[in-house]
Amino acid sequence: MAELRIQKTNAARLLEAAGIPFRLIPYRVDESNLAADHVAAELGEPIEQVFKTLVLRGDRNGLFVCVMPGDMEVDLRVAARISGNKSCAMLHMKELLPETGYIRGGCSPIGMKKPLPTYIYESAFLYDYIYVSAGIRGLQIQISPEDLRRFIAADIYPL
Predict the structure, then answer these.
(1) What is the pLDDT of residue 1?
(2) Is the N end or the C end of the chain the one with fewer CB atoms within 10 Å?
(3) What are the C-alpha distances in Å from 12 to residues 22, 86, 101, 111, 125?
(4) pLDDT at 33
């Protein structure tokens, strides 16, 4: 079996420069299945610890980010409320790269083109560490949720 290569990403360099402890964890990519359950299975970790980065557009305040457990769907009404919007929708996939610098399946809450208001789902803080994308498909960052929250100046996304 081929060994998985670890490529240092911009997100990893930013964490390293800030002195934040993290680990880069590679996994095999299935281009036909970019879902979090596949990533969790590849990592051998519970899906509740593998977080996805969702970019949304609010009707009042523009773009914002929700960092959610892989087994959950974003509640658009709650997301709109916590972000100060009346309504919101997922950012269209074709807008993801120009707006964030990342592609679907490789969107990290760390190191986007410009800082966006970010909300981390509260269950992240039940764990010593969680996984988020390192900014490319096939690589995750294992990080303390509190370190992540502080570094990206995120708020907690409540139930």
Answers:
(1) 44
(2) N
(3) 8, 34, 15, 9, 21
(4) 86
